[in-house]
Amino acid sequence: MEYKALVTEETGEGYLSSIKTLDSEQLPIGDVLVKVYYSSLNYKDALSATGNKGVTKNYPHTPGIDAAGIVELSDSKEFKAGDQVIVSGYDLGMNTAGGFAEYIRVPADWVVKLPEGLTMKEAMIIGTAGFTAGISVTRMSELVKPENGKIIVTGATGGVGSVALSILNGLGYETVAVSGKSSEHDFLKSLGASEIITREEFAQVDKRPILSSRFAGGIDTVGGPILENVLKTLNLLGAVTTCGSVSATQLNMSVFPFILRGISLIGISAQNYPMYLREPLWQKLATDWKPAHLMELYNEITLDELVSAIDLILQGKLKGRTLVKIQ
Ligand SMILES: NC(=O)c1ccc[n+]([C@@H]2O[C@H](COP(=O)([O-])OP(=O)(O)OC[C@H]3O[C@@H](n4cnc5c(N)ncnc54)[C@H](OP(=O)(O)O)[C@@H]3O)[C@@H](O)[C@H]2O)c1
Question: What pTM was computed for the model?
């Protein structure tokens, strides 16, 4: 059977991506063949499509860490033809051919049944970025409650940041957004942000080891000096999650905020989030944690439009989530 996929190839001039027709015989070995209806664009896909060997070692390769679709063939008792499913994380789109294709074949233990309350399209508007926002809010809310004070969200117009703002708003948290996009303040306010701090202002390095406390908690998606400033301005017993490094991978600060204010820095890994936690979180995202602003949070593109969207996400220019309609 032939199917269409985005294929990234290593050439003498770098990494080039284009739509190709492939044969399903070339799909990886796996228990479940899924006809993909929707995927989504995540920052990691852009790294995979531009030759980042930390994400993808071998090319030619089809990126796409997210897929929602319908099971076509299954060797697993857990799934049958016709089941609507979500596949995200694990090795999908990294070193296993991913969701920027009409078909994927994966191990059954990577597959989640689409929960009631979510369509395949909604699941991919959430996608890995929104799921990461869900994990981040889960972990932060174990330590910080709405009555404790304001929550700062960085990279706020991005995929993780925008979904985090919407979920936090639904849970009754007051949020403050850090954003580099002056044109998107109305968008951030519509997601519930009560205040917006410019990225330029918040990225200033202040060498003092600890600063006046301002925030009860934080969801950081960018790392570097911005995360340092969040950590230095957390209240007593505050907590911030860290999932991304679009600004920088290094943290260059002292331990003083940790040992004087008892704050927590919580690492987030969506890729390896275990199935016994993954399924219940998808259930939550389909029900009480379903982001109220889901339909305002995305832009829909086709496989053919992916190459230019990949360029834009690498430049930090995309807003919200980018849904990829496959079928
Ligand atoms: N650990 C995990 O499991 C996990 C899962 C998903 C994503 N991630 C990571 O989380 C990060 C965010 O992912 P995403 O999907 O939200 O990406 P995204 O949609 O590209 O959003 C990132 C946002 O960061 C801000 N930004 C861009 N360049 C910046 C810079 N140089 N300095 C500071 N801020 C900058 C922009 O928002 P503003 O213009 O509003 O500032 C941008 O929209 C990425 O590093 C991604 O790889 C990790």
Answer: 0.97
